[in-house]
Specification:
Blueprint: H1 3-18, H2 22-33, H3 43-55, E1 60-64, H4 70-76, E2 84-89, H5 92-104, E3 111-115, H6 118-121, E4 131-134, H7 141-150, E5 157-161, H8 177-191, E6 195-204, E7 207-216
Parallel strand pairs: 1-2, 1-4, 2-3, 4-5
Antiparallel strand pairs: 5-7, 6-7
Helix pairs in contact: 2-5, 3-4, 7-8
Bound molecules: S-adenosyl-L-homocysteine, 3,4-dihydroxybenzoic acid and magnesium ion (MG).
């Protein structure tokens, strides 16, 4: 089984069942044209974030790691009227592109982009949030989880992206700071009595990776 097959199936699923709307497609194209790295979630994963938001009837979302706002639009599209989303981005250039993409998607009023290193801006963020999506620099994942818990309420859903990294997460000798960061965040999820968690491996257009999903006990 190869990356080529995973990508073909991802495309088949995204064309058939995901049905991204034109603003989402436009955000992808604008991000690519601006030279942003293609590290946004896949359409299938974006739709999963959208469905989780709707299943949970989340009204307030925190995202850590905006890039061009691709995942932000999938999440924001799932909010009910009056819902809100705060997204944190270190790079002003990424935030500027995201702002354009979000405005085009009609989410300019719904989404607040907070520019700066997340560990510096998080202390000023006010919760509680119904759903938190952690997708910024991987070495700081456990720190972001601690903030997510501080900004959570019973029932809050937490999603952590990129916890598999082609399987390297299960190798304790892997010294890559991103891999070590993912291991640390998984250990923190496991050790936190307020959380119930799982993690899933995924293959697709983004290769072999996965995400963790947790809920704060009611
Ligand atoms: N969630 C996006 C992808 C985010 S990529 C999507 O799926 O569409 C990760 C982003 O996190 C990048 O834009 C990067 O600039 C940002 N980032 C990296 N370190 C950060 C930090 N310390 N604080 C805030 N954002 C950071
Ligand atoms: C990277 C970051 C991501 O959030 C992602 O989904 C894939 C790759 C990266 O930094 O390489
Ligand atoms: Mg990611």
């Amino acid at each position: 089984m190869s990356n080529e097959t995973w990508t073909a199936v991802d495309r088949y699923f995204s064309d058939l069942v995901v049905q991204a709307d034109p603003a989402i497609e436009a955000a992808m194209e604008a991000s690519e044209a601006a030279g942003l790295p293609a590290i946004n979630v896949s359409p299938c994963m974006g739709k999963l974030l959208n469905l989780l938001t709707r299943l949970h009837r989340a009204r307030n979302i925190l995202e850590i790691g905006t890039l061009g706002g691709y995942s932000t639009i999938w999440l924001g599209r799932a909010l009910p009227p009056g819902g809100s989303l705060v997204t944190l981005e270190r790079e002003p250039r990424h935030a500027a592109i995201a702002r354009e993409n979000l405005a085009r998607a009609g989410l300019g009023e719904t989404v607040e982009i907070v520019v700066g290193p997340a560990l510096e801006t998080l202390p000023g963020v006010e919760g509680p949030f119904d759903l938190v999506f952690i997708d910024a620099d991987k070495p700081a994942g456990a720190d972001y989880l601690a903030h997510a818990l501080r900004l959570a309420r019973p029932g809050t859903v937490i999603v952590v992206d990129n916890v598999v990294r082609s399987g390297r997460v299960a190798d304790p000798d892997d010294t890559d700071p991103a891999v070590a960061g993912s291991r640390r965040v998984l250990h923190a999820l496991a050790a936190e009595p307020r959380l119930s968690a799982t993690a899933l491996q995924t293959v697709g257009s983004k290769g072999y990776d996965g995400f963790a999903l947790a809920v704060v006990q009611e």
